[in-house]
Write a structure and sequence with these properties.
Length: 122
């Protein structure tokens, strides 16, 4: 997930996205769209691109799809983090591919408020 070398300079928008990802408390998540809305800039695709290119150094598993489906190709790594952190999950139905659970978004989603909140855009 981390494709940067030490000599690469991180774009300003990417720095802001990664800062939000770092502040999401363990056991909670924000969607790509939530992060973009919080920053007041970009959209879910832009946030997803930042996470794909630069997210390896932050808790990438806390920035997720709105439907609660685990990141394709990284499901087992993410699942290990979710279980370790106590992130609310919905067990997969028998028909689900690989029987991988989804995030219980109603309980896991973080709105950025609270003791560890991120300073919103102004």
């Amino acid at each position: 997930m981390d494709r940067m070398s030490e000599d690469d300079e991180l774009p300003e928008y990417a720095e802001r996205v990664l800062e939000v990802a770092e502040r999401i408390p363990p056991g909670r998540v924000m969607t790509y769209g939530d992060v973009a809305e919080w920053l007041g800039e970009g959209g879910p695709r832009q946030v997803g691109r930042v996470m794909a290119l630069y997210g390896g150094a932050v808790p990438w598993w806390r920035v997720v799809r709105a439907d609660g489906v685990l990141l394709p190709g990284h499901e087992l790594r993410a699942l290990a983090h979710y279980r370790e952190e106590g992130t609310p999950l919905r067990e997969a139905g028998r028909a689900a591919e690989g029987h991988v659970p989804r995030l219980a978004m109603a309980r896991a989603r973080w709105d950025g408020r609270g003791e560890e909140s991120v300073t919103p855009h102004t």
